[in-house]
Design goal:
Layout (H helix, E strand, L loop, with lengths): L1 H20 L3 H25 L10 H12 L8 H21 L4 H18 L6 H11 L2 H6 L2 H21 L12 H16 L1
Keywords: Membrane, Transmembrane, Transmembrane helix
Pfam family, one: TM_HPP
Organism: Flavobacterium hydrocarbonoxydans
Length: 199
């Protein structure tokens, strides 16, 4: 009996190690292309409208979102509702907290992140990079802070929509990848795609 358990444990361990160390070049290729194009578009918009270090469109949380929506596309955190809702809720909360306590960073920073997490949980839009979006509204550059509630729409909403559209295109280029992964989203997306192809 103990020998069988040991053998079973060994087989499971070997399988897990195999899966975790497996290099899927096709998967990595599409992750690279999607993230390159998504962030590339944001960087291009940035270069046209702003100069120097005025990084307005390229907020750090978009890099983290790219890991999710191009690299871990099956994750619940990567789905469109979470991507868009998580960032927008967090941005709104971050700006609101900054307006209420603009000079007390040791209260504003943790309060913005904590409230963002709770509201994302309540609305079922939990997206880990949203915490960074809320924090950037507090600790970002003067240019970011000066945007006020405009920060919610641009760069956050504009940037998130660019990442989402890019993810919808590149994550569905092959039969091995399917985004969004939720069946309801997937059916709707493929109905729209069929209509467009039919025309």
């Amino acid at each position: 009996m103990p020998v069988q358990k040991i053998k079973r444990g060994y087989r499971k361990t070997r399988y897990i190690l195999y899966k975790e160390t497996l290099v899927d070049f096709k998967e990595h290729f599409w992750s690279f292309i999607g993230s390159f194009v998504g962030i590339g578009i944001l960087a291009y918009i940035q270069s046209i409208h702003f100069s120097g270090n005025d990084a307005v469109y390229l907020i750090g949380s978009f890099g983290a979102s790219s890991v999710l929506v191009y690299g871990i596309i099956q994750s619940p955190f990567s789905q469109p509702r979470n991507l868009v809702g998580g960032h927008l809720i967090s941005a709104f909360i971050g700006v609101t907290v900054h307006k209420l306590a603009p000079d007390i960073i040791w209260i504003a920073a943790p309060l913005a992140v904590s409230l963002a997490i709770v509201f994302m949980q309540i609305t079922k839009t939990l997206h880990p990079p949203g915490g960074a979006t809320a924090l950037i509204a507090i600790i970002g550059s003067d240019k970011i802070k000066a945007l006020g509630y405009e920060y919610v729409f641009s760069p956050v909403l504009v940037g998130v929509l660019i990442l989402l559209v890019t993810a919808l295109v590149f994550n569905n280029m092959t039969s091995s990848r399917s985004y969004p992964s939720h069946s309801t989203y997937h059916k709707r997306f493929h109905k729209i795609r069929k209509r467009l192809r039919g025309k």
